[in-house]
Design a protein that fits this description.
8 strands; mainly beta; globular; 42% strand
Length: 102
Amino acid sequence: MGELVGKTPPSDPVPARPLAEYAGSYGNSYFGDAVVTVAGDALELRAGPGPAWRLIHWDGDVFYFEPLSENTPLGSRSQATFDGSTLTIEHLDEHGLGAFTR
């Protein structure tokens, strides 16, 4: 599950901005809050009561993580795309509800 499953990361990705620029709380009227934090040299995403997901840089402002739950099969990759003050979480966006705003 996910647009990036089976794809090879770009050989020359656009660098991410400084990680602290992505950190913060992003709200969503359906799912509640998503919180992005800097953990060492990486970002972590927490959305809901489960564990935080480590975000892996893909290209530019696009990161991904590998969700594991009853709703996502093993091997899934979900994009976390930052666009200005919006964070879109791919696996929550199936019905257009996955955009979170800072």
